[in-house]
Amino acid sequence: MENENISLGQEVNIPERLLKREQERISAIEKRQEKKGDKEHDGFSNMFNENYDKIKGMINEIDVDPNSGSVNKEELKEKFADINKQILLLNHVIVDAKIFLTSYDMKIYNNKLQELTEQCNILETKLLPRKKFGFKKVDKVKLGGQGDKTDEAEKKILPKDDVDFVKPRQHEEETYIGFYNRSNETLELPSEDVHKKPVSLSNIDSCVVKVNGNASTIHLNNIKNSQIFLGPVSNSVFIDNCTDSTLYLACHQLRMHTSHKCSVYLHVTSRPIIEHCKNIGFAPAVNIDPVLLQSAGLDEGTNHWNEVDDFNWLSVEEKSPNWYVIEETDRKNM
């Protein structure tokens, strides 16, 4: 009788028909998964386009109405509030769909939604213009708990109406309100100027900056050795090239790129995203005015501050080394 035991190192000859059957089984599974993904994407695409057209129709209805300029302001405010609510809900849906959408698809949908947001903001500014807000005297910004950084920055404090209006980028009609090319200053934007407008802070070095009210979106670029305090933002905060700084913010979506050695105190209703970042500390933002959160459409009870997605760290089993949770004993009292 032949010995049926297979010794170590001995090759096992698997019949070709079994190999072929296994390959066919794997191929069938992959095809089913691919069809499932395509089906989910097609369903999402139809849903997105339907809601996109609905929101665009709501905006166009106000824009072409010859009586819009003379209509009751409270009615107009309600219409714009409804549009912004629909935009925010659709934004939530896009974020939730990232489990089956590609990065390219996410970018396309986000860009289309951003176009709607900007179109709505431009029309609202046109039909419901806000009185320009300013101060005749220089007021100190009382942020509290800022330590030596605040004392140093208070050496040079600007009036609250001394703001920079950043030139619009290509294909953008609306001007970004904000500050740029500033150093060793304490800067503040009043809520009346910020309300539902895009804000930009660029080339800021060794400053304390406070943005009040509810901006629609905020872009931070080239921030160094600074402390940034942002009121609740209705949509997204985009951060590029931020180093050695402390950020305090609330928003629906946070995207942080090419930043290092920063502390982020955050209230965010979707998972924050970092890319090409190192040594970024996160902690929950506390003591945020619930009225401001509500006016920005943010859920006070939902905060994903410690559920960070690092696009440069693909492992699902190990946490990214590029970010960490700030220990409670090390957190600043904002």
From TrEMBL:
One Pfam assignment: TBCC_N
A Gene Ontology molecular function term of the record: tubulin binding
Domain named C-CAP/cofactor C-like: residues: 168-313
Any Gene Ontology biological process: tubulin complex assembly
Keyword Chaperone among record annotations: yes
Keyword Cytoplasm recorded: yes
Keywords: Acetylation, Chaperone, Cytoplasm
Intracellular or extracellular location(s): Cytoplasm
Principal place of residence: cytoplasm
GO CC aspect terms: cytoplasm
UniProt cross-references to PANTHER family, sorted A to Z: TUBULIN FOLDING COFACTOR C, TUBULIN-SPECIFIC CHAPERONE C
Quaternary structure annotation from Swiss-Prot or TrEMBL: Supercomplex made of cofactors A to E. Cofactors A and D function by capturing and stabilizing tubulin in a quasi-native conformation. Cofactor E binds to the cofactor D-tubulin complex; interaction with cofactor C then causes the release of tubulin polypeptides that are committed to the native state.
Family listed: Belongs to the TBCC family.
UniProt name for this protein: Tubulin-specific chaperone C
Organism encoding this protein: Diaphorina citri (Asian citrus psyllid)
